[in-house]
Amino acid sequence: MAMTAAIAEMVRGLDAEALVSLREKARVHLDERLRERTDVALIDGEYRLTGSFYEKQLRLVLRNCFIIDPKNVEDYVALGGYAALSRVLTEMTSDEVVGEMTRSNLRGRGGAGFPTGKKWAEALRHDVPQKYIVCNADEGDPGAFMDRSVLENDPHSVLEGMAIAGYAVGANMGFIYVRAEYPLAVEHLKIAIAQARERGLLGRGILGSDFGFDIELRLGSGAFVCGEGTALIESIEGKRGMPRTKVYRTSHRGLWDCPTIINNVETFANVPLIMDRGADWFLGIGTEDSPGTKVFSLVGKVCNAGLVEVPMGTTIESIVYGIGGGAAGGHEVKAVQTGGPSGGCIPRELFDTPVDFASLARIGSIMGSGGMVVMDDSDCMVDIARFFLEFTVEESCGKCVPCREGTKRMLEIVERIVGGQGRPEDLDLLEELADTVKNTALCGLGKTAANPVTSTLRYFRDEYEAHVSEKRCPARVCQKMKRFEIDAAQCRGCTKCARSCPAGAISGVVKAPHLIDDGKCIRCGACMENCPFGAIREAW
User: Which of 33, 76, 128, 308 could tie 81 with a disulfide, CB 3.0–4.6 Å?
Assistant: First the structure.
């Protein structure tokens, strides 16, 4: 149902009192719309998506996704949007806001898990005229779409979180750095920012107060390294996106050498909830060390793929099997990779591990931004390591030697292994190179680049050894290890296989069994496809 003209007029130039009045009226219209939907239910006063996939989750960051119209600020207000900002501006000092965030122990959801309150406190104590708030929406992990979903479906939650952060640390300007490959997210952010400005929720005198804060978009071109905070800052400043040497924290000297708060999309989306419901409420969710929820992009060889939000401390088993439904197609889950290209591969026997920052670190992985890729028994873990290394090498900015050269040399070794040319000493060399890159790379991306290799070597060393010692890929994935054999009992000597082989690898005379020269064979499979008697088979 369309918003009435009376309500539309009311939302212009909102103050705290008008915001409450708008919320009451807007909720009536939202209720009318949602009652017509069969995929949404009102439970304990909150709208929730129905179905077993959603019912097993605790959707807080994703609470509004696929429920409200992201292009309509009134929908967001109807469900309590901007109430936290109003409370902060009318009832709390900057010190109190920072104190509440510190007490909540919200850890940054971008990957590192640094305490948000501690970061804000550092920026607050610097008494300088200019500070900045930056939202890192440069989501580049393969298979990850957590930030994208929030920006597309609930952009105002991020704007509100950034405005609260601005008030807390004394910043009047914010930037959202989002990749241009997210056109719908960019469109919805532009609409949300324009609506917020029009209604006095951004700009000067927010909600009738003396606090001013505005937000601008900056579009990234898809460089993975710009997800690193200092590289992102360089890009916003109009420079090439390359990490800085960490002389100062960005909360001390960041954007244009001013104190700068950098948090990711999910972190900012948590802020209004904490300020509205309180730190004690937030601490009651998750674990003592990692409170709150975490959004995961559950993808790969799993029956039920999609965004999953669960309390911190939920086991991998509960996510992959309880929500994801296990592997598809009758296969068995072999591993799950968390943390994107910088994360580790966790074997099935460790699925009782709780998903939190400390627990994942203990088993050689990281939380990352929330990617969770499921692999089954048809996946080769050596090839998986090769895939992520290839991505890292391609995306390395090249500024520091350990990352630029070390990852490249590691990739060469792994490619040699999957190509059937591996040597026993390669495994020790991989571990040595991984340790060097980890300890000497300039930025966090470089320091974690070797995790896919070290974790697969740790938990799936038997697969590496099969590739190296037996020249065999147990999962039958690495094509250069595949061989073709001719069954002499079935071969009629028709010569069709020899005539179809582009490499001239098949020899023999008419009406006699033929032979394949493995050294010449290029593994194209043309011989097997053309044999009329089924005498040629794959051999692993």
Answer: 76
Q: What is the pTM of this model?
A: 0.88
Rounded Cα–Cα distance for residues 141 and 388 (Å): 10
Residue 37's pLDDT band (cuts 50, 70, 90) = very high
Q: Decide if pLDDT at 378 tops 80.
A: yes
Strands 344-347 and 333-338: antiparallel
Pick the CATH number of 482-539 from 3.30.70.20, 3.30.1360.120, 3.20.20.70, 3.10.180.10: 3.30.70.20
Whether pLDDT at 113 is above 80:
yes
**90-283, what's its fold?**
Rossmann fold (3.40.50)
341's tokens: 């290209």
Say how far apart CA 89 and CA 202 lie, in whole Å.
13
The matching CATH number, chosen from 1.10.10.10, 1.20.1440.230, 2.60.40.3080, 3.40.50.970, for 381-469 is 1.20.1440.230
Return the DSSP state at 106. P
CA dist., res. 511 & res. 504, Å (int): 19
Q: Which residue in the block uniquely carries the two structure tokens 């998903």?
A: 355
Two tokens at 522? 């290029």
Q: Compute the mean pLDDT over every residue in the chain, rounded to the nearest whole number.
A: 92
Predicted confidence band of residue 447 (pLDDT cuts 50, 70, 90): confident
Tell me whether strands 483-486 and 536-539 are parallel, antiparallel or unpaired. antiparallel
Tell me how many helices (H) and strands (E) the chain has: 24, 15
Q: What's phi and psi for 538, nearest 5 deg? A: -75, 145
Q: DSSP letter at 255?
A: G
Q: Give the residue extent of every domain in the chain.
A: 90-283, 381-469, 482-539
